[in-house]
Amino acid sequence: MKNLQSLFLNLFFVSAFFSCDFVNQKKQKDSDEKKTSVNEADYLKKDFYGHWKGKSKITYEETVESYAFDLKINDNIYFHRADRFNEDGTFTIRYDRESEIYSFMGGDFSYNFRGSGEWELDEDYLVLTYSEVKLNDHESSYDYDEEQMEMYEVLKDAIQNEFIENEVASYKILEKDSKKMVLKEENAGELEEGVEYAEVVTYKRVD
Prior knowledge:
Structural class: alpha+beta
Oligomer: single chain
Number of helices: 3
Largest sheet: 8 strands, antiparallel, barrel
Number of strands: 9
Radius of gyration: 18 Å
């Protein structure tokens, strides 16, 4: 979600160091369930309770300081009563297979993540306030050699250190029924140069 996207944007700049300097030094979610448009929006919290699964991708273009890479996110979000939510999933940093850093890293870098906080509905917006985000090693890292693991851990620490407590993420609800919701980040038009976010993110309910 937005909080994670903010962390990943910082990763883009952190990557400027680790993509080049590190390489140079170590040669890195029924027919009667109609779609609800924004003009018809009258959402109830009870319609959101439960487990939703989504996928998204953020593309970072190549710059003078950094290699291009894609960030693929698979996340699960759980909406609870008492205005609480939990989130977990995996994100993968994927460089071009022909790039020098891909050769050094020996493949993609994946991390597991967990988040939690409070959620609310504000007309046709879904608003999340994160109290915690935690990164953990993905099982794919277990076979890394010493140099790969060093870079893997340093990147993880750099991303984790960018987390801001009580950061707010706001999404416009474009579509919502009992099985699917389509969200658009509130600030999607204010994208940073060289970073391409998914236009919308679709979440599907998990039974």
